Amino acid sequence: MIEFFTSNFVPVMFAGLLVFLLLGFPVSFSLAATGLFFGFIGMELELFPSNLFQALPLRVFGIMQNDTLLAIPFFTLMGIILERSRMAEDLLETVGQVFGPLRGGVGIAVVLVGALLAATTGVVAASVISMGLIAMPIMLRYGYNRTIATGTITASGTLAQALPPSLVLIVLADQLGRSVGDMYAGALVPGLALVGLYLAFIIVVALFKPSWVPALPPEARIYNEPNGSSGHRSLLALLVLCAAAGYGWSQVHESIMNPWLEREMPAPGDEVFILSMTISAFLALALALVNKLFGIGLLSRLTERVTFVLIPPLVLIFLVLGTIFLGVATPTEGGAMGAIGALIMAGARRTLSFGLLKQALENTTKLAIFVLFILIGSTVFSFTFNAADGHVWVEHLFAKLPGGQLGFLLFVNALVFVLGMFIDFFEIAFIVVPLLAPVADKLGIDLIWFGIILAMNLQTSFLTPPFGFALFYLRSVAARNDYDDVVTGERIPAVTTAQIYKGSIAFIILQIIMVAVIVFNPGIVTGNLDKAVKLDNAEVMDMLNNMQDLQSDDPYGAEEKPAGDTPATEEGLEPPAEGAAADEEIDPAKALEESLKKAE
C-alpha cells in the first residue's frame, strides 16, 4: 500500500483535493488543507525533507506584496460605484433610443451597453442583472423573440470576461507571469471582434426574421424634436466630425507621442486606436457643453443626451486604458485612476452617498479577500505538488497528446470549457492555469496568446447549460410568473428556464468560433504586442566578446601600444575624439545598446 501511494503520490493528491471539494469545504481551504495534509504525509514517508514548509511563509508574504493584484480591488471599486450610480439604466435608455427605430435596435443597444459595462464594471453578475432588470421588460413589451432576448442579455453580460480592463485578464497575467498591459493589448482586438460578431448576428436575424426583433413604435421614442424629427441627423453629423478628428489624430499620433515618450519604435495599433477615440470623445463632450451653455441649438435633444450619458464613461475607459498602453501608468495605477474617476462621475450625477460608498467598499473588500485566500490556498497546494515533481507528471501527461501545439490547445480548451460549467473562473485560474502554463511554454506557445484563449474560453463557459453562471444571474431577475405590463397593460407570460438556456446556444457557437479564430490566427493577439529584438547565438557571442574587450583594462589587448599621445586606430577601435579626456572610459552599456540597434 505504501509503495503504491509513493509511486502514485501526485494522482492521489488530486483525488484528495476532489474529496475535500465534494465534502463542501470552500475552495481556498480545500487547496490549503490538501497541500498541508499531503505535505506532512510525504515528510513521514521521507518523500520530502523535514524542512519542506520553511519557505512557505515567504511565499505567502510574496502574495501579499504583489502590486499587480492591487489592480483587482481598484477596478472592482470602479465598477461597483458606476453600476450602483444607475449608469446602466441611463445607457440602455439612451442607446436604445438611438437604435430603437431600427429592427433589432434594442438588441444592438444591449450588446453595445454590455460592452461598455464590461469595460467599466468588469463584473459579469452586475452586467447581466442590470440589463436583465432594465432591457428584458422592454424587449418582451414590444414583441422580441424570447430566445433572442435572453441570449443577447446573457452573452452581452459575459463580455466583462474578455474586454479590458477585465479582472480575469489581471489574474491570468499574474498566473502566467506576464505583463497585465500586454494581456490587455492582446485582448483588445479579439474582444472587439466578438462584439462585432454579436452585432452581425442580430443584424442577420433582423434581415431574415424581422418579426423576432421589431423596432420600437413611435410612441416609445421620447427624445423627438419640437418639429417632430428624431434628431438623428444632428447625431450623425457630430459622429462624422468626431470620427474625422480621431482619424486626423491617428495620422499625427506617432510624430507627437514618440518624441514625448523618447521612443523610436512605431506606435502600437491599440495605443493609436485608444488615443484617437479619446480625442474624439473629448471633442464631442466639449461641443455638447458649448452648445448647452450658450444655447446655440445646433445639437438635437437626442444628440445632447447621448453625449452627456455616453461620453463620460467612454472617456474614463479610454483614459485608463490609454495610460496603460502608453506606459505612463501601470495597471494598478490605472485602476486607482479609474476608481477616482468613478467617484467623480457618481458625484457629478448626484448619486454618490455615504451608503453607496460603504456598500462599494464592503463588496470590494470581500472580493479582494476571496481572491487572496484562493491564491494563498493554491500556493500551499502547488508547494507540495511541485515538491513531488507534479509539474513533471503533468508534462508527461500532455506529452502523449498527438498534434503538438494544436493538440494541446484543443485538449486544454475542452478541459477548461467543461470545468467552467462547474467552478468559478478564479478557481480555474489559480488551480489549472499554473499546471498548464509550463507545458504551454515548453511547447513554444506564446503565453499572452494562451491567456487570451483561456479568457475567451472561460467566457463561453458562463453561458453553457446547465451550470452557466450568466444563465443563473438572468434567471434570478427574469419574471417567474405572468404579469401585467406597466406601459401597455397587456399580460406578459413568464420567462421560462428553458427559454434562457435555449437563447444561449447561438451565442455559445459564436464564442466557439471566436476561440477557433484566435487559435488558428495568433497574430490577432500577438500582432498588437511590442516585438523584442531577436538575436541568434552567433550574434550573442559576438556581443559578449565585444563587452569583454570593452571592459578589459587594456583595450588594445596584449600587444604593445603605439608610441605617441594619440593611440593609433586598430580594427574595431576608433581614436578618441579631439579634446576628449585621456582617461575617459568607454561605456559598456552604450556599446551594448548600439549593438542591439545594429542587430535590429
What distance separates the N and C termini? Answer: 60 Å
**Shape, per Cα inertia axes:** globular
Rg is 29 Å
**Range of strand content:** under 5%
Write out the strand line-up for the largest beta sheet, numbering strands in chain order.
1-2
Largest sheet: 2 strands, antiparallel
State the order of secondary-structure elements, H for helix, E for strand. HHHHHHHHHHHHHHHHHHHHHHEEHHHH
Residue-averaged pLDDT, rounded? 80
List low-pLDDT spans.
532-536, 553-586
Number of helices: 26
Structural class by SSE content:
mainly alpha
User: How many beta-strand segments?
Assistant: 2
- The percent range for helix content is 55-70%
Question: In short, what is this structure?
Answer:
The protein is mainly α and 600 residues long. 69% of the residues lie in helices and 1% in strands. The longest helix is centred in the middle third of the chain and has 34 residues, at 354-387.
What labels describe this entry?
single chain, 26 helices, mainly alpha, two-stranded antiparallel sheet, 600 residues, 69% helix, globular, 2 strands
Question: What does this entry look like structurally?
Answer:
The chain is mainly alpha-helical. The chain contains 26 helices and 2 strands. It has helices at residues 2-7, 9-22, 27-44, 56-64, 71-84, 87-99, 105-120, 124-141, 146-157, 167-176, 180-208, 232-261, 269-294, 301-326, 331-348, 354-387, 390-399, 404-419, 425-431, 433-442, 447-461, 469-477, 497-520, 523-526, 537-551, 588-599, and strands at residues 483-484, 491-492. Strands 1-2 form a two-stranded antiparallel sheet. A hairpin with a 6-residue loop joins strand 1 and strand 2. Helix 4 (56-64) runs antiparallel to helix 16, helix 13 (269-294) packs antiparallel against helix 14 and helix 21 packs antiparallel against helix 23 (497-520). The longest helix is centred in the middle third of the chain and has 34 residues, at 354-387. The radius of gyration is 29 Å and the shape is globular. The N and C termini lie far apart (60 Å). Mean pLDDT is 80; it is low at 532-536 and 553-586.
